[in-house]
Automatic annotation (TrEMBL):
Belongs to the zinc-containing alcohol dehydrogenase family. Residues 7-316 form the Enoyl reductase (ER) domain. GO terms for molecular function: oxidoreductase activity, acting on the CH-OH group of donors, NAD or NADP as acceptor; zinc ion binding. Keywords: Metal-binding, Oxidoreductase, Zinc. SMART domains: PKS_ER. This is L-iditol 2-dehydrogenase. It comes from the Bacteria. Its cofactor is Zn(2+).
Length: 318
């Protein structure tokens, strides 16, 4: 099979490698595509602790496709089933996954891209946020995740204030139901704007979905007394400082809404399947750029640079 290999910081080469074989309890998936995650960007930059080249297909963990082989003991899945797979070398034509980490996709989703991991992540963050009708929710950072959370929170009956850097993202937030949008440009101006929109009370829930120090600081400032600050951003570029005085004074509940248990991820993916199949959620407009597998470097660079109109990249084998 063909697989992409990150051979050095900022460099990809294509290789012909043996197809992986499923072991007991595993399946092999002929991949239709794989989403590109922002968590790839630190390895792509090449930190000192990374060893290159990476394994064939490595970094790709948002794959979907059709099962073409099953290992011993697999009874709930069969060759021909179309699935979203939680696996880890999906920048390739095939990947192997644990059967319990594969979620069947219904016929109603045939032909539609389905990067299960980020969709499931959004559903799990929404559950952890405990958003209720009548609440005011600020979402700081409108990318793929922030846009989906905007839709979910709006559908739950919350009033969403979307805060983001790019005009394109703010327009998208409006399309996904945001009641108010604010450019993320001036720290104190944003605080005053949200204060005015909430009669000085600030927000019941604030979801930080950027993964940088300033948006984290801003998000805490926007959370009301006894409100919940939900950290959804992936903070991977170093330690963070927090304003513990503010956190203490307001009595904030701070939720790190990241999961590591594959079973929890799988539950989130199942919820995403139901939401999309029922028409409650339509992520299609969020898949803004598609690249061939041999263009993985371009996909990663676009994910880093975020050109105008970019939100989410998908990589397909052909």
């Amino acid at each position: 099979m063909r697989a992409a290999v990150v051979s050095a910081p900022g460099q990809v080469r294509m290789e012909e490698v043996a197809k992986p074989s499923p072991g007991p309890g595993q399946v092999r998936v002929k991949l239709e595509g794989c989403g590109v995650c922002a968590s790839n960007l630190t390895p792509w930059e090449g930190p000192e602790w990374m060893n290159f080249p990476l394994e064939a297909g490595a970094l790709g963990h948002e794959g979907w496709g059709v099962i073409d082989a099953v290992g011993d003991g697999v009874t709930d899945l069969a060759v021909g089933d179309r699935v979203a797979a939680l696996s880890y070398k999906s920048y390739a034509e095939y990947d192997v996954a644990e059967a319990e980490a594969c979620i069947k996709l219904p016929e109603s989703l045939a032909g539609q891209p389905f990067p299960g991991e980020p969709l499931g992540c959004a559903m799990n963050i929404f559950k952890r946020a405990d958003i209720q009708a009548g609440q005011t929710v600020a979402i700081v950072g409108i990318g793929f995740l922030g846009a989906i959370l905007t839709r979910l929170a709006t559908d739950a009956g919350a009033r969403v204030i979307a805060i983001s850097r790019r005009p394109f993202s703010l327009d998208l937030a409006k399309q996904y139901g945001a009641a108010e949008v604010i450019p993320m440009d001036d720290h104190y101006a944003i605080i005053e704007k949200v204060k005015a929109l909430t009669d000085g009370q600030f927000c019941d829930r604030v979801i930080e979905a950027v993964g940088k120090q300033w948006p984290l600081d801003l998000s805490a400032e926007l959370t009301r007394e006894r409100g919940k600050l939900i950290i959804a951003g992936y903070h991977q570029d170093g330690p963070r400082q927090v304003n513990m005085w503010l956190w203490n004074w307001r009595g904030l509940d701070v939720i790190n809404a990241h999961e590591r248990d594959p079973k929890v991820y799988a539950d989130g993916i199942r919820e995403a399947v139901e939401a999309i199949a029922s028409g409650r959620l339509d992520p299609a407009p969020l898949y803004t750029h598609t690249y061939r597998l041999d263009q993985l470097d371009e996909a990663l660079n676009a994910t880093r640079d975020r050109p105008d109109g970019f939100l989410k990249a998908l990589v397909v084998p052909q």
